[in-house]
DNA sequence: CTTATGACTATGA
DNA sequence: TTCATAGCCATAA
C-alpha cells in the first residue's frame, strides 16, 4: 500500500469482520449495531455490503449472525434463504419468536457482554 | 451539481 | 401484520 495510501477502505471491512467474528455462538447483532461499533451508525448499508463481500464462514465471518434491526434476516442474499438461515441460528441456540424473527431481546450480543 | 444505487432503519397506512 | 416511502451517507456516472 505504500504508494497507494488508500488501504483504509479495507480496514472498514476488516473491522466489520472482526466485530462479527467476536459474536459468540447463539448470539446475533444488527447491521446498525456493527456500524455503530465502528463509529458509523449511519452506514449500516456498508456493513451489509461488507457481508456480501465477506468470505463467510470460510473466513471466520459468521454473516448469518448479522440480522436486521427488527431481528429479520436478509432474504435472497444469504445462504439460501431466511428459512435456511433461521435453521442455522436455531442450531447455534438462538431463540426465535413465533413470527420467525430472532429474539433480539435475548440473543442480541454487545461489546462487553 | 443532480441522479442512481445499496445484506439498512424508522415511520405511516 | 405487510407494504410503501423517506432518510441516511458514500460512491459512481
How would you sum up this structure, described in words?
The structure is a single chain. This protein has a two-stranded parallel ribbon. The longest helix is centred in the N-terminal third of the chain and has 14 residues, at 8-21. It has helices spanning 8-21, 31-37, 44-53, 82-92, 104-107; strands at 29-30, 66-67. Helix 2 packs across helix 3. The protein starts with 7 loop residues before the first helix and ends in a 6-residue tail after the last helix. The radius of gyration is 14 Å and the shape is globular. It has five helices and two strands; from the N terminus they run H-E-H-H-E-H-H. The protein has 113 residues and is mostly helical.
Amino acid at each position: 500500500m505504500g504508494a497507494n495510501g488508500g488501504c483504509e477502505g479495507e480496514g472498514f471491512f476488516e473491522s466489520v469482520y472482526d466485530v462479527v467474528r467476536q459474536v459468540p455462538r447463539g448470539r446475533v447483532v444488527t447491521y446498525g449495531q456493527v456500524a455503530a461499533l465502528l463509529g458509523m451508525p449511519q452506514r449500516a448499508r456498508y456493513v451489509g455490503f461488507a457481508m456480501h463481500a465477506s468470505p463467510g464462514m470460510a473466513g471466520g465471518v459468521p454473516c448469518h449472525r448479522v440480522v436486521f434491526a427488527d431481528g429479520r434476516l436478509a432474504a435472497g442474499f444469504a445462504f439460501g434463504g431466511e428459512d435456511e438461515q433461521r435453521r442455522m441460528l436455531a442450531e447455534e441456540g438462538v431463540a426465535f419468536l413465533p413470527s420467525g424473527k430472532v429474539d433480539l431481546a435475548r440473543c442480541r450480543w454487545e461489546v462487553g457482554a
